[in-house]
């Protein structure tokens, strides 16, 4: 069974995210994921997209618990007026490697936002097992399709220890289309390699080839072929765009170039 298809965007202070939400929903994507960093507010981006949509699910991937307390996350979500019936809250350890920070954060947020699914970002084996134990969904990244079976093993082990079903596996797949696509993907890989040992280790443990999809020709057939192995391996495939520019038109153009069937 093919994975549910989602689109991922970097958060930034740009106008017209409602237009992107409308396009995403009309083209048949099931979800829109937005990151949350010091550069941009993912919660606000999703709130803007949510005003123009009615069925599109919205997910933030992810809010750092080293920078935002659960109480702060709750305030941001409620103040934004997000449609909570179609919202997934993604959280991560941020600059910390603390399992307790994430475990306790999930517990507090379940009390503050009852009924809202919580996704946990995980790269290494210990965080993946914890995610299997406590999360409703898991946000994985920078993984080739053949690594997904190992990821599932860690999630299954954590879920089994907790006596619960294995959570949904969402995988971010960086996707660049058009002139310079390969260079954009390569640059993004190198940028993340410098973010911490867990990212560097994940790259080093995999074959030395691009982790993601880069199609210079723009061919929809080639894009579909590049995404297919990922879509066959996970529950939700988040096509995390790497457009040539950062204007909303660049994101809309990239989202439109992805075959959604």
Structure characterization notes:
The protein is an alpha/beta fold. The chain has one domain: Alpha-Beta Barrel (TIM Barrel). Helices cover 43% and strands 20% of the residues. Helix 4 (99-112) runs parallel beside helix 5 and helix 5 crosses helix 6 (148-162). It is globular. The model has no long low-confidence stretch (mean pLDDT 96).
Q: What key attributes describe this structure?
A:
261 residues, alpha/beta, eight-stranded parallel barrel
Helix content: 40-55%
Helix-strand pattern, N to C? EHEHEHEHEHEHEHHEHEH
Outline the low-pLDDT stretches: none
Q: From the coordinates shown, what is the CATH architecture?
A: Alpha-Beta Barrel
CATH fold name: TIM Barrel
List the helices and strands and how they pair.
Layout: E1 4-9, H1 17-26, E2 31-34, H2 42-51, E3 57-64, H3 70-80, E4 87-92, H4 99-112, E5 118-121, H5 125-134, E6 137-141, H6 148-162, E7 168-177, H7 181-193, H8 197-204, E8 213-215, H9 220-231, E9 236-241, H10 248-256
Parallel strand pairs: 1-2, 1-9, 2-3, 3-4, 4-5, 5-6, 6-7, 7-8, 7-9
